[in-house]
Each structure stands twice: as structure tokens, then as C-alpha cells.
Write a sequence for this structure.
């Protein structure tokens, strides 16, 4: 059973798996989603969740499914709309806290 290391939690990122078997499609996908905005992917906590509780939840997800299937930080770029009109407005921009694949 895999567990999240302290460095994993502090770096807040992991590599995303390939979405397409065809490398041409995968490259095109990355071209759109790799840099979805001019801004870094900020760490967004779910409403009402403290940082310590969020990190505990991430560790528990990692234990359940493995580190390679829990995405945080820059790895969430696949989950952010690359054409979001509210890209510069953090109060309206839709950014996930984490993803489990």
C-alpha cells in the first residue's frame, strides 16, 4: 500500500498519466492544458476545510489508491478550463483542490 511522503505533500504536485494512447493526440492535449493560464495553479482548500485536514485527506487518498492517482498543485492543470474567462479573478475562477483518478 503506497503512502504519501512528506516531500510529496509539501511539493503539492505529481505527474499526470497519459490520456491518449496516440502520442500525437497526447501532445495536442498537453499543448492546450499544460499551461492553462498565465497564473500558477494556486492551492485552493475546499470550503470549511483546514490545511491540516486537507493534507490528512490527501495522505488517506494516497494510501487508498496510490500516489500516482492523486493529483494536486500543477498536476491539476488538466482539470482547469484553459479558456476560463475568469482566469485573473480568483473569486470566480473554478479550480479544484485535488483530483483522484
Amino acid at each position: 500500500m503506497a503512502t504519501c511522503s512528506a516531500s510529496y505533500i509539501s511539493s503539492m504536485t505529481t505527474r499526470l498519466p497519459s490520456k491518449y494512447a496516440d502520442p500525437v493526440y497526447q501532445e495536442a492535449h498537453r499543448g492546450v492544458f499544460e499551461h492553462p493560464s498565465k497564473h500558477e495553479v494556486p492551492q485552493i482548500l475546499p470550503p470549511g476545510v483546514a490545511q491540516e485536514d486537507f493534507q490528512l485527506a490527501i495522505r488517506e487518498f494516497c494510501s487508498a489508491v496510490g500516489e500516482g492517482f492523486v493529483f494536486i498543485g500543477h498536476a491539476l492543470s488538466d482539470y482547469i478550463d484553459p479558456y476560463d474567462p475568469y482566469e485573473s479573478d480568483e473569486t470566480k475562477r473554478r479550480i479544484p483542490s485535488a483530483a483522484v483518478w
Strands lie at 70-71, 99-100.
